[in-house]
TrEMBL record:
<dbReference type="GO" id="GO:0016887">
    <property type="term" value="F:ATP hydrolysis activity"/>
</dbReference>
<keyword id="KW-0547">Nucleotide-binding</keyword>
<keyword id="KW-0813">Transport</keyword>
<dbReference type="InterPro" id="IPR027417">
    <property type="entry name" value="P-loop_NTPase"/>
</dbReference>
<keyword id="KW-1003">Cell membrane</keyword>
<protein>
    <submittedName>
        <fullName>ATP-binding cassette domain-containing protein</fullName>
    </submittedName>
</protein>
<dbReference type="GO" id="GO:0005524">
    <property type="term" value="F:ATP binding"/>
</dbReference>
<dbReference type="InterPro" id="IPR003593">
    <property type="entry name" value="AAA+_ATPase"/>
</dbReference>
<dbReference type="InterPro" id="IPR050166">
    <property type="entry name" value="ABC_transporter_ATP-bind"/>
</dbReference>
<feature type="domain" description="ABC transporter">
    <location>
        <begin position="7"/>
        <end position="241"/>
    </location>
</feature>
<dbReference type="GO" id="GO:0005886">
    <property type="term" value="C:plasma membrane"/>
</dbReference>
<dbReference type="InterPro" id="IPR003439">
    <property type="entry name" value="ABC_transporter-like_ATP-bd"/>
</dbReference>
<keyword id="KW-0067">ATP-binding</keyword>
<dbReference type="Pfam" id="PF00005">
    <property type="entry name" value="ABC_tran"/>
</dbReference>
<keyword id="KW-0472">Membrane</keyword>
<comment type="similarity">
    <text>Belongs to the ABC transporter superfamily.</text>
</comment>
<dbReference type="InterPro" id="IPR017871">
    <property type="entry name" value="ABC_transporter-like_CS"/>
</dbReference>
Amino acid sequence: MPGKRLISIEGIAKRYPRKGEGELTIFEDLWLSIDRGEFVCIIGHSGCGKTTVLNILAGLDTPSEGVVIVDGKEISGPSLDRAVIFQGHALLPWMSVLGNVAYAVAARHRDWPKAKVREHAMRFIDLVGLGPAANRKPSELSGGMKQRVGIARALSLEPKTLLMDEPFSALDALTRGTLQDEVRRICVSSDQTVLMITHDVDEAIYLADKIVLMTNGPDAHVAEIVKNTLPRDRVRNDLHRMPGYYDLRNHLMDFLVTRSATFKDELAAGLPYDFRSPPVVVPIVTKEGAEPAPVDAKGDRVAS
Ligand SMILES: Nc1ncnc2c1ncn2[C@@H]1O[C@H](COP(=O)(O)OP(=O)(O)OP(=O)(O)O)[C@@H](O)[C@H]1O
Ligand SMILES: [Mg+2]
């Protein structure tokens, strides 16, 4: 029986050399663990290093310090066990929808005959509702359809981890909502482990089990990890009627509007903070004016 923890990010930093001015630290001392089946979102302002963190997890970039352990092993490069859905769709323009997905499946299962590859690819194309468009080229698809191909391709790899970099940000509201519903349905039903980057607080509340709040860069940090205690069977259109929804939303908005910038001052003023285990917070207020309830390392509430 494999352990509960799948990914362990241990003290990673990313630094770039600067002409004549020493190094620029984008983020440092970043620690985060992700359990199997967990859906984790990272939220933070532009430039704090979210894509860099995701690329490091994908094996497409390397940290300047620290390590990432997946399934007990330090990662050393890209792996089909960690599929990425990019913000741009990154499709091969000369191949059809089926061709794009089958290409990935064939790379994963080199010994499969053509018919089996095709059947497997079609299963995932159907899953995202693109069956009737399977023979179209990317140039004949809308933005939302292209994004679906990217999702089908990543899911068809049946990866241990799905990494998504703002997968819905370029879509209109209606398409975004539909795709969020589909991705959530697929991930919940298959206990998929996911790390997703988003700028959208409501998207994070709908999809994530926990939400990682990153402070502004340079020198960004994980300020805290917010536990989402809304029911797992939540429905997008009913979120705002759920008890605790506004506490959670206000907490995330307050972070983005204020604390993401002032956290550094709090640290400098002596805020007790352990980089290795950032505070886990459940921002559901129990009585008027109360502070977010403190929780232990497992995210369970502790008596205050
Ligand atoms: N090769 C590089 N040399 C110097 N700085 C770089 C390099 N690549 C990225 N950066 C800087 O690293 C920082 C983090 O970039 P990253 O793309 O990870 O940010 P992000 O949080 O994903 O932002 P966004 O929300 O806009 O996508 C940015 O300030 C960027 O300018
Ligand atoms: Mg980015």
